[in-house]
Specification:
269 residues, 12% strand, 2 domains, 7 strands, single chain, binds magnesium ion, Rossmann fold, alpha/beta, globular
Length: 269
């Protein structure tokens, strides 16, 4: 546990908002290894394409920059990049569908394994997730899940991981009408709906979008710098981005739960 800012009031939390992929779920771990090569492949076919190496850098930069927002934004940027290089792009939605088709090939066995019980839920959860959710429920917080992944997938994957019922505030994901969803909107609704003060909101995420959104309303932001592949230790790249985004605290996962809870809910003096 790495404390970035210690002077922020803690302990009065009434609601918590969670990102899904990388924060709770490991089902989609490795999605970048599908998106990067696909986007590079698309750009390599344009008339004014740079070298493979340069294209890889371009793709990595804009994909990473937009991570945490809905997938469609990465596809909208791809359209622009194709046009910049004199190509005729598909629509963002067509790129998104092809990306999801490729990703699904990679993760289908995980979802099916969870459905039929041949894969243990714990292996597809950020370690300590269930215990953390239980602890927060015990303390009376209302829990929300908000993800940039399409809503039907988020609902299904939360269910097969056995965590859906914890989120009594609701589970939100990306919509085909993408303008109708953003993490910022969900947070605004939580604040208004419960008449919350900023310091009553707790947020967990492994992307800068949710950290920035939580900090923008005066909430407390826990950056989860999870290493989704090795499931151990800190992912340095995430740690740096989360710190820059304004995270108050950085953790690798929820294995050090009692220390985390004692810190977030200090005994009243
Ligand atoms: Mg995430």
């Amino acid at each position: 546990m790495e404390i970035i800012k210690d002077d922020i009031h803690r302990g009065r939390f009434k609601a918590a908002i969670f990102d899904f992929d990388g924060t709770i779920s490991l089902i989609r771990a490795g999605w970048q290894d599908v998106m990067y090569p696909y986007f590079v492949e698309v750009l390599a076919e344009t008339p004014q394409a740079e070298s493979q190496e340069q294209l890889e850098r371009v793709v990595r930069d804009f994909v990473d920059f937009l991570t945490g927002k809905q997938t469609i934004y990465q596809c909208m940027q791809l359209v622009e990049e194709v046009e910049k290089r004199g190509g005729v792009p598909l629509t963002p939605l067509e790129y998104k569908h092809e990306y999801l088709r490729r990703l699904w090939e990679q993760i289908e066995h995980r979802v099916h394994g969870l459905e039929d019980g041949s894969i243990e839920r714990e292996t597809m959860l950020v370690p300590g997730s269930v215990e953390l959710l239980q602890e927060l429920k015990k303390r009376g917080l209302t829990l929300y899940l908000a993800s940039g992944t399409d809503e039907p997938y988020v609902l299904h994957e939360a269910a097969v991981l056995g965590v859906a019922d914890f989120f009594d505030g609701g589970i939100y994901g990306a919509l085909e009408r993408y303008e109708d969803f953003s993490k910022e909107k969900v947070i605004q609704e939580i604040i208004k709906g419960h008449d919350l003060a900023g310091e009553e909101l707790l947020g967990f995420g492994d992307g800068y979008v949710e950290i920035e959104n939580v900090k923008a309303v005066g909430g407390y932001a826990v950056g989860v710098a999870s290493d989704e592949i090795h499931q151990k230790g800190i992912n340095e790249w995430k740690r740096e981005r989360l710190t820059k985004a304004g995270a108050d605290l950085i953790i690798p996962d929820y294995r050090g739960l009692s220390e985390l809870i004692t810190y977030l809910f200090p005994p009243e003096e």
